[in-house]
Amino acid sequence: MKRRDFVQLSGLGAGALLVPNLMTGNTIFAEALLEPGMDTIVKKRMADVALNTAKSLGATYADARIGRYLNQYVFTREDKVQNVVNTESFGIGIRVITNGTWGFASTNDVSEDGIKKATQQAVAIAKANSKFQKEPVILAPVANYGEVSWKTPIQKDFKEVPVSEKVELLLSANAAALNNGANFVNSALFMVNEQKYFASTEGSYIDQDVHRIWPNFGVTAVDQAKGKFKTRDAMSSPMGLGYEYMDGLASEKLVGAAGLTLYRNSYDIIEDATAAAKQAKEMLSAKSVDPGKYDLVLEPNHLGLTIHESVGHPTELDRVLGYEANYAGTSFATIDKWKSGDFKYGSDLVNIVADKTQVGSLGAVGFDDEGVQCKKWDIIRNGVLVNYQAIRDQVKMIDQDESHGCCYAQSWNDVQFQRMPNISLEPGKDPYSVSEMIKDVEKGIYIAGRGSYSIDQQRYNFQFGGTVFYEIKDGKIVGMLNDVAYQSNTQEFWNSCAKICDEDDYRMFGSFFDGKGQPSQVSAVSHGSSTTRFNNINVINTGRTV
Amino acid sequence: MAIYTEEEAKKIMEKALSFSTADACEINLQGSESGNIRYARNSVSTSGHRSNQNLVVQANFGKKSGTASIDEFDDASLQRVVARAEELAKLSPENPEFMAPLGPQVYDKAINYVEATANITPEYRANVANSSIEPAIASDVTAAGFLDDSAGFQAMLNSKGLFAYNKSTNVDFTVTMRTNDGTGSGWVTRDFNDVSKFDANEASSVAISKSVMSREARAIEPGKYTVILEPSAGLGLLSGLGRSVDARQADEGRSFMSKDGGTKLGVKIVDERVNLWSDPLHPEVPVSTWNGEGQPLKKTEWIKNGVVQNLAYSRFWAEKKGVEPVPYPSNFIMGGGDASLEELIKSTKKGILVTRLWYIRSVDPQTLLYTGLTRDGTFYIENGAIKYPVKNFRFNESPIIMLNNLETLGKQVRVEGNLIPYMKIRDFTFTSLSDAV
After folding, report:
1. Which of A262, A320, A406, B395 could tie A421 with a disulfide, CB 3.0–4.6 Å?
2. Which among A10, A135, A417 has CB closest to B92?
3. Which of B54, B97, B176 shows the shortest C-beta gap to A326?
4. Global pTM value
């Protein structure tokens, strides 16, 4: 990467920064992203400073995470580059158990002295908190993996792709939208590289290099005469892939209903922006939905959010136990329901798995942030709740002796805790296409893309919108709809699951910003599914006059 | 310690500025010290302390600008960060929306820093947790809470002679109490600049009372109800209105504030009793008297007697439109009345008391329609008294519709740095029931 590629296109201005404040670090030159950072041998030595200091102060367990987080963001609007931002954040987080109690401290001073001071602080916090600790922390055993490494299997490192190429692609997408009737368009590329080194007093030294990418846009059409505007967002998904995701390969395009083109492991942003402009205009005059009961045919980039909210969160064991009660809430999926062994979460068709190893997913890593090798496990099998998501200090509470490997911290600066792995609905076992699904529906709505979403603090009652809506009558798409939202109860909804397309239609939805905890942290997670039908769901009309 | 005095901050920034050769240069310096404690299941779960400092340099040559930041402030580091910003600026494309830095400004003296808050100790935090946990155990309920306190400063200096400095403190507390039979939940929030105004015992007792009162809630039909919104619940919806004051979005036709090719400036949009303004010097909700661009912040009316008085104009958009810039609000104050919560309940024949709203999301930006749910204390009122707890509802409502259905304004309460009154609203739209406790 040449320096000029970046600086010619960057328009850094503090007033124009659009970077989510949870993803910032120090702004740096683009070529600095390519610097190798601290050598692994030095990281091991520094991590050992933390571990040895902790042990000398009486800690019975300690782990150290040395993190270097490199991000690049490109923002454009119509024909303008709003901003190009490169950031770097580097430091160490140290977690200890002393007197059976957790303590944590972090510092950006990754020197022996800085690490010792932070470790002392972590131990002091643990000792102070132990006064109020009711039960000592007990960790499930974990293997000693020795010195190992893992890397997201990418083909193109975003850091090696010239910024000019990224800007050109976004501006081309903007032009495509404007040339097809859009009044406004914003587009952005978010690219993330987490270089993480983990070491613990149990003997593992784990080096990981994690990559994620998220292209996104919003296309707006305005009808000044009627005083109306409609926005159609991108049908992309954030992915655990390299810059090759932007190649727009024809082989990764899927055919949705109503002529929609959808994208699996490769995204064509120009094609999508073109379609978005046409659809945003079409939305301005689309029919307002008649409220009532409909069979819903839900496209994977829509259904992913429903899976996230109504299955992912309620099966987090820390929520079930009450650790999130003051913030995100608790869960209806209580221990007694799981212990019964027959709690019917969904219909027999519903098989939902947690998988931290899924290639291309946002949550894919080799090891979690407490050094547990990642794996795949069942959450719901044949409609029955069979397991939760749990980490080392929780699994004993569900009579298990092995962590699920889903502990994560958003940065070296934050303490790690239980976070949602990729939670996905398995595709149907028999051949069944989207067009066959539509043919089977008498009165229904096809919904694609994410929209408004809201669910209660125990994950019963939810309401979801979408990006685009099409009415289905007697097996055919008959036109676009407006003002659609569906409301249901989680258990009723999943028990109404009537048909799932096969694996040819399987793709992943994702989010960079799944929030949880106090202070709140974000994590990135994917949810895979095929197009799925849910029968007889309550649809409301959200149109209002003010 | 990351908190610098005005003199210390100015000295560092002047040193950085002395290295600048750009047409103009702007330095921002900020630092903060914060601590927190989190508890759940009647036990402390995590706590932490953060210390942070950062210096940001923006250099510009004509309409080209570059920005770089650093967290080390020795001479060599300051020289390096300025040089880096200038290198970027020289090689950057022109930004058509670039606005040159402001010259010297006159700021009111801010009142949002209180030494007592800056002196909070780990022991104080632990005692706050204990002030929730012990009474919770005694009441057969379970506490989950979070206390976060911070002290910080921000300073700004530029080559046009502008200098600004502000220190601030804040303490935020929330606690959720859940009855041990799992059928009741209560919640409370408190926030102050001055921690001496905070009483953890008082706050915790409110949440405990609500949890006990809300046990075994009954289901009643969703529909349109008269509601009394506690200030936290009211803020949840008013925030949507607050986010829609951007003049550019309105002018472009893609905002609730757009209207027939123009904007709703001067248009009556809500009940004439609604007055909404921002004021950095309000003694209950003080904030900095300048913003990130160095603009002075003054008392600004946004809605007066139901009529839109101002939209926020960035400096660029104001120049384009030939008007004076109007800085974005940094707090919201809604005028209230004299009625206490008890009086509002007493004057209600049939209605619902709402403690808070949860998971509020925009459904339609055109009409400011939002959805979300009630949570942690929802009660049915009949003939001037709370009769029984009711199950939580999902709502679909617009703050504009809500403020046109205003019945009574009650007393103001500070919530999340804003001052919001209790509000009694008729015909509030609940669309479904939730079994969540």
Report:
1. A406
2. A10
3. B176
4. 0.95
